[in-house]
């Protein structure tokens, strides 16, 4: 053990949601593989969920044990958020996240303090998610170098960074259904108010915890020493260049596809994964639409029904991830009665899967997605065009990038959540086989090439990562 902390050592505490866990774990492996030692911290309930999802009754299992066997120095530990394990943190998001913003920092303080006091765990730096409300405060108190990981596109970061400008110009809070041009934010040539992050919308102002979260997170990140972005320079050059005028930014994405890491040995999924390979192999190339709204979105029975019958009417093959707990009503009976009998072999409805494995299968021809950033970038990595159906947070802004800027997707409906089965069916049909589908596929392949090249030895993201490591070492010594 004494050996273990001769290397510069970081504490990394992960946000307890799937869309943050995945990039954060990959970043931990990548930093460790560059000669650093990591203490990786999961929330206790996440650790229990991982153990359950991977059918492992031993709750003390160390998710990094195999990574360590391959030579990486990663210790694994947990922190309690103070809530019972079975408390539903998704359904009670407003209460839960408000507590995480305001009360949890005291626990982090105590936790980090203990690690620092206990020789030999000398800590040099902190790597934290930008959405937390405490990284700069803790880093300053314990004299740690402060590295922030932003898991969404740089465009979304820039909007959060310049909330004051949006406020000055009357766009925060912003009326819900207006279409005004925002052309005063550095690094953003032009964006419609419809495509702004949902927390600035008037209707969201009741969601105190999210609005407060953006305020607190961006106040904190303005004091970070390094900001890492899960994006690629070539895709967001103007936005990233403008940000560099304020602080050192490094576009190192797509983080979930870092090369030569034992990433597959580390449990990440909070749900058990269904294996779709056999079913996919029975379908022709590019014939299957993959449908998923991610780990977090809650929706109504009506939306589920319209999507369900829209898929059926389209006559397209599909895999649909219908997550347990997706209904905002809390109802556990999700699908319309008899639906699965009607679908027969045309569709596979599953509670969760290994999304990257599914998207990489040649049978997949498109992705009907909520445009969470991980899903978006995973789809682009696989060259799979998207039908975009954003719900909230960064998702409407991510849609703009996919549809308007990179042209590798279409919108399901015009910025509203309400959908109609006939419209859904028509959109899906023309997306999968209509005249426009060829050009969507071509554009998706262009973006795929950019993403893959970024992680090559001479690619921009690898270059930024190398520069980050060099700058970090200089700062630590
Ligand atoms: N995911 C998965 N299996 C599924 C659905 C999603 O592994 O059945 C993963 C997906 O690969 C992505 C993450 O869950 O990495 C979801 O993150 P995203 O940012 O897309 O959306 P969020 O869940 O944060 O809304």
TrEMBL record:
Q: Per its UniProt entry, which superkingdom is the organism in?
A: Eukaryota
UniProt keywords (A-Z) are: Glycosyltransferase, Transferase
Q: What GO molecular function annotations does the UniProt record carry, in alphabetical order? A: quercetin 3-O-glucosyltransferase activity; quercetin 7-O-glucosyltransferase activity
**Glycosyltransferase keyword on record:** yes
Q: Is Plastid a UniProt keyword of this protein?
A: no
In terms of InterPro entries, this protein maps to:
UDP_glucos_trans
The family classification in the record reads:
Belongs to the UDP-glycosyltransferase family.
What is the protein name stated in its UniProt record?
Answer: UDP-glycosyltransferase 86A1
The record lists the organism as: Sesamum alatum
């Amino acid at each position: 053990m004494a050996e273990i902390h001769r290397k510069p050592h970081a504490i990394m505490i992960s946000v307890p949601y799937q869309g943050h866990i995945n990039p954060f774990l990959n970043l931990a492996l990548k930093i460790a593989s560059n000669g650093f030692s990591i203490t990786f911290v999961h929330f206790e309930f996440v650790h229990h969920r991982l153990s359950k999802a991977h059918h492992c009754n031993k709750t003390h299992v160390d998710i990094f044990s195999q990574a360590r066997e391959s030579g990486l120095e990663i210790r694994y530990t947990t922190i309690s958020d103070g809530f019972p394990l079975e408390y539903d943190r998704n359904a009670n998001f407003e209460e839960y996240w408000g507590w995480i913003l305001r009360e949890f920092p005291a626990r982090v303080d105590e936790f980090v303090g203990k690690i620092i006091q206990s020789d030999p765990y000398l800590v040099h730096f902190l790597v934290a998610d930008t959405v937390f409300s405490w990284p700069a405060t803790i880093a300053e108190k314990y004299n740690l170098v402060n590295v922030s990981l932003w898991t969404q596109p740089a465009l979304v970061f820039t909007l959060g960074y310049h909330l004051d400008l949006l406020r000055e110009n009357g766009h925060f809070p912003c009326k819900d259904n207006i279409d005004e041009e925002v052309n005063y934010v550095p690094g953003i040539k032009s964006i419609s108010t419809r495509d702004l992050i949902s927390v600035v919308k008037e209707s969201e102002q009741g969601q105190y915890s999210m609005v407060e979260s953006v305020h607190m997170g961006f106040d904190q990140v303005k004091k970070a020493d390094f900001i890492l972005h899960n994006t690629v320079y070539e895709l967001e050059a103007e936005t990233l260049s403008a940000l560099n005028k304020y602080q050192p930014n490094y576009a190192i994405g797509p983080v979930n596809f870092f090369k030569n890491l034992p990433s597959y040995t580390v449990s990440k999924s909070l749900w058990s994964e269904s294996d779709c390979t056999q079913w996919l192999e029975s379908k022709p190339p590019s014939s299957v639409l993959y449908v998923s709204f991610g780990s977090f979105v809650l929706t109504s029975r009506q939306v589920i029904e319209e999507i369900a019958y829209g898929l059926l009417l389209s006559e397209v093959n599909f895999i649909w991830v219908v997550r347990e707990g997706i209904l905002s009503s809390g109802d556990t009976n999700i699908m319309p009665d008899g639906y699965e009998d009607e679908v027969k072999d045309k569709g596979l409805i599953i509670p969760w899967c290994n999304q990257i494995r599914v998207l990489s299968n040649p049978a997949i021809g498109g992705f009907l997605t909520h445009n969470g950033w991980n899903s978006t970038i995973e789809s682009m990595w696989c060259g799979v065009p998207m039908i975009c159906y954003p719900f909230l947070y960064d998702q409407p802004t991510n849609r703009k990038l996919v549809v308007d800027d990179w042209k590798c997707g279409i919108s399901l409906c015009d910025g509203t959540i309400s959908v109609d089965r006939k419209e859904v069916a028509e959109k899906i049909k023309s997306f999968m086989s209509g005249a426009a589908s060829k050009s969507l596929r071509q554009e998706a392949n262009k973006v795929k090439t950019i993403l893959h090249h970024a992680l090559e030895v001479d690619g921009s993201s690898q270059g930024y990562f190398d520069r980050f490591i060099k700058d970090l070492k200089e700062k630590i010594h």
